[in-house]
Amino acid sequence: xxxxxxxxxxxxxxxxxxxxxxxxxxxxxxxxxxxxxxxxxxxxxxxxxxxxxxxxxxxxxxxxxxxxxxxxxxxxxxxxxxxxxxxxxxxxxxxxxxxxxxxxxxxxxxxxxxxxxxxxxxxxxxxxxxxxxxxxxxxxxxxxxxxxxxxxxxxxxxxxxxxxxxxxxxxxxxxxxxxxxxxxxxxxxxxxxxxxxxxxxxxxxxxxxxxxxxxxxxxxxxxxxxxxxxxxxxxxxxxxxxxxxxxxxxxxxxxxxxxxxxxxxxxxxxxxxxxxxxxxxxxxxxxxxxxxxxxxxxxxxx
Length: 302
Known about the structure:
It comes from Panicum hallii. One of its GO terms (molecular function) is quercetin 7-O-glucosyltransferase activity. Belongs to the UDP-glycosyltransferase family. This is UDP-glycosyltransferases domain-containing protein. It is a single chain. This protein is an alpha/beta fold and 302 residues long. Helices cover 36% and strands 17% of the residues. An eight-stranded mixed sheet has the order 3-4-2-1-5-6-9-10, sandwiched between helices. It has a two-stranded antiparallel sheet with strand order 7-8. A two-stranded parallel sheet has the order 11-12. Helix 2 runs parallel beside helix 3. It starts with a strand and ends with a strand. The model is unreliable at 49-53 (pLDDT under 50).
């Protein structure tokens, strides 16, 4: 029997890659061979990258974490300007990523390191298609909280009554295992137009999750979300594996932490739009002006 080899597959966005890297380090420390792959591009700055190398390896405890770029065939080159449009990226992944991943799995097997398990995160449904095609079991890593996963699951499966978009932000929402919430607290993805390509992917993945994945690994821990986890276990095999945080420090991070420590409690506004939202220059300027007009300190992560 071959040694366990876990392949981690990410959508090509930094906020998706980082939790997988943290999970990969934990798995590798258990004397496992772990590989991580995604589509490299100029906007994705990874700590392991060295020059133009398509692969890198890191020793973690008694195990190994190796990075393999998903490339070849019709996959765009890293400097392709089309990576700037998230919608173009989504369509490109749907067209070519599954075949590229099957090729990577075959190359790993030919090299004597057959993949025995795949873990993919949200917006990488092509990873589950590729794993199924080659007969490798798979799990999903849900990068957000169990509460958010439960909201999506109950909404898209119509298991709980949710207020309509025009019901107002004060309309109450009751989901098993979660505290009562107002409609204004719900994730924006719930009410995006149905033709929105990323919403379509989210709906498809949530509805097919139990068929595609043996487990749903969630970036949380029991002490934080005990009741949400317990309630969702009635619907899917969730397993808390968090918090998935990279503990490496750099000077910029230290300066940011020192600045935050010097601010009064509950005084800082944190702003982050993730990897998919793209603001125009005018929108950026309007957002900055609005933040400045509050007179509150703010931290804007891009």
